[in-house]
Amino acid sequence: MDHEITPEMFEQPSWDERYGGADRVWSGRPNAVLVTEASGLPPRRALDLGCGEGGDAIWLAERGWQVTAVDFSEAGLERAAAHAAERGVADRVEWRHADLRTWAPEGEEWDLVTSHFLHLLGDGMAGATRQMAAAVAQGGTLLVVGHHPDDEHTGLRWSLPGVLFTADDLAAAVDPAAFDVRAEARPRTESHHGDEHAVTDAVLVAVRR
After folding, report:
1. In 3D, which of 104, 135, 136, 122 has the Cα closest to residue 169?
2. In which domain, by residue range, is 83 found?
3. How many angstroms separate the CA atoms of 51 and 68, rounded?
4. pLDDT at 122
5. Integer Cα distance of 116 and 57 in angstroms
6. For residues 92 and 117, is the Cβ–Cβ distance under 8 A?
7. What pairs with residue 48 in β-bridges?
8. Residue 86 contacts residue 77 (beta carbons within 8 Å)
């Protein structure tokens, strides 16, 4: 997103338009923090919130997880399902259409609940994180990753206040009596249009006791 961000860009029609184009929006590769944090976990049931074109969900499914993947873009879900079929894991991913601003687990639980680069206006991420935590089974892991406010490469391209967050911001929505919580600003290197540059991710990891 190299142009001015507007509130309309956080709504379903905008993302349906992006995902409805001829070209893939994202790389199809799993997010780096997911690979780091989930590679050592036993494959059980995973929930991927804000799944987009399905890169993370498909990576988990290929490693034996049974995945529920949620997004509010129907065009994104259609593209993700097609990618899963191409990779031979269609039977390991359930695609669900829902708006994460109002989504709730409704009593369901997963062993891994993950969300990468979901950014909501206002205090939306705090409420979403609270619902994500409620979806984590005993002994399970919550992993939420986003663009850190100190990330110059990303932060300077966002023009709406409150969209970026730190892991500490989200940690306040997780019950410390029920979870072991780790909140980090984690640096990494990313390739963008052929150039390598340093970025910083806000990384929240919480394990339910």
Report:
1. 122
2. 7-208
3. 9
4. 80
5. 11
6. no
7. 69, 114
8. no
Closest listed residue to residue 76, CA positions, set 26, 38, 20: 20
Task: Select from 103, 70, 67, 79 the least CA-distant residue to 25.
Answer: 79
Number of domains in the chain: 1
Specify if 2 maps to a domain: no
Distance CA 207, CA 26 (A): 29
Beta pairing, strands 66-71 & 45-49: parallel
What pLDDT score does 2 carry? 45
Where residue 183 falls (left for φ over 0; alpha for ψ -120 to 50; beta otherwise) is beta
pTM above the 0.85 mark? yes
Q: Three-class SS string for the chain? A: CCCCCCHHHHCHHHHHHHHCCCCCCCCCCCCHHHHHHHCCCCCCEEEEECCCCCHHHHHHHHCCCEEEEEECCHHHHHHHHHHHHHCCCHHHEEEEECCCCCCCCCCCCEEEEEEECCCCCCCHHHHHHHHHHHCEEEEEEEEEEEECCCCHHHHCCCCCCCCCCCHHHHHCCCCCCCEEEEEEEEEEEEEECCEEEEEEEEEEEEEEC
CATH number at residue 153: 3.40.50.150
The tens digit of pLDDT for each residue in 45-89 reads 999 999 999 999 999 999 999 999 999 999 999 999 999 999 999
Domain assignment present for 95? yes
| Joined tokens for residue 185 | 């600003």
